[in-house]
Amino acid sequence: MEKEFDDVLARTARIATDWLHTLDDRPVGETVSLDELRERLGGPLPAGPVPPLRVVEDLAAAAEPGLVAIPSGRYFGFVIGAGLPAAVAADWLTTVWDQNAGLYACGPAAAVAEEVAGEWLRDLLGLPAGSSYAFVPGCQTAHLTCLAAARHDVLRRAGWNVEEAGLNGAPPIRVVVSARRHTTIDRALRLLGFGTAGLTVVPADDAGRMDAAAVRSVLAGPPVPTIVCAQAGEVNTGAFDDLAAIADACAPAGAWLHVDGAFGLWVLASPALRHLAAGAERADSWAFDAHKWLNVPYDSGIAFCAHPEPHRAALSTTADYLTQGGDGSPRDAIDWTPGFSRRARGFGVYAALRSLGRQGVADLVDRCCEHARTFAAGLAGVPGCEVVGDVVVNQVLFRFADDDTTTRVLRDVIDSGEAWLSGTTVGGRRAIRLSVSNWRTSGEDVERTLAAFRRAAVS
Hints:
- With 459 residues, the chain is an alpha/beta fold.
- It is built from 14 helices and eleven strands.
- The chain has helices at 2-21, 34-41, 52-63, 85-97, 108-125, 139-157, 162-165, 183-191, 212-218, 243-253, 308-315, 346-379, 403-416, 443-458, and strands at residues 132-136, 174-178, 200-202, 226-231, 256-260, 285-289, 301-305, 386-387, 395-399, 422-426, 429-435.
- Strands 1-7-6-5-4-2-3 form a seven-stranded mixed β-sheet, with helices on both faces. A four-stranded antiparallel β-sheet has the order 8-9-11-10.
- Helix 9 (212-218) runs parallel beside helix 10 (243-253).
- Its cofactor is pyridoxal 5'-phosphate.
């Protein structure tokens, strides 16, 4: 049995490293159609066992043309990072160790790695001492975690225990959101019982910044249980809400301030850029991803809460069979996350942070933003290209003369295999969004991509 494991893991490592070595030369996008992939991977379930080594080799061969080279330095789609070497290796070990990180008793090292990584993150980002945290699949679940804590707290202060009594008959909660909020906010709120029709939506400016004066106006009336959702890094433009002004409005109203910092919160690690998120430390909760700018393999999201009591009250659970283990009050993740049985995501975050250190994280963020500025300057010289708005951090938004041209140019670049980017719609018009979030991206990658757009623009 051990020999079989040795063989299959060794072969898997070789397949993986061989694939990584192709990143500079392979097309960034997939090279196969949906129907072809279904044919390559499909067929009837085998009647009997298939040797593990053959399964892995067949899977790799069948899947290879359908893989998107997300780890490539020329992948600029959505806001997706690549895995740092130490984080990828730690993620492999996480799979092999196979710890159930829900309980300390099921993985003491996993629990302590989360403790250490959580404290490192709190210190790195300058969040309040004593803040609680949760390692979750992504920012969507981080919002769910934080907003559950918010719901508990604002109702507790109104004399209602939502975990016992539910929402039927509860005092109404006012939820204030931006017109340019991310869709994951709506879905998290929906899962917590807040319908989108009941949200108080305040306007945003052309860059996507929430109108802080409108927030102040909404909160000026008689105090009611209130949650305000602000944003550090709008998904298209990278713009930041005025978090200090919004915090000023929330404080006298007793409103819970939640910050969606999916990628933008990482500017707090950069001395050159942290001013963009000034006031973030005054929020009550924060949700962000490690699989974006920290370049931890998918999936890895993080929730922080300045108030551990409502965080734990909203998420914790007990049962007779849940054995607590170890001396010194070990931390059980089931008290802080919506998950029960769960992957030990803390190992990957720990490895990424330790491999980069404080300066390395700052350098990664700064380097990506510098590449974004270089992109914007280069795109401005591409025939017919218009860069939309300012480059705030790592997002570049641009378009061509009309929607058809924008769509065609984007398609031509993707089909060339030189780069992969995602489209979007801003102000009712099609645009292209370029996000530099990858530790691998080099000046050469930037120039290759710009050259691909120059060719596409005149074709």
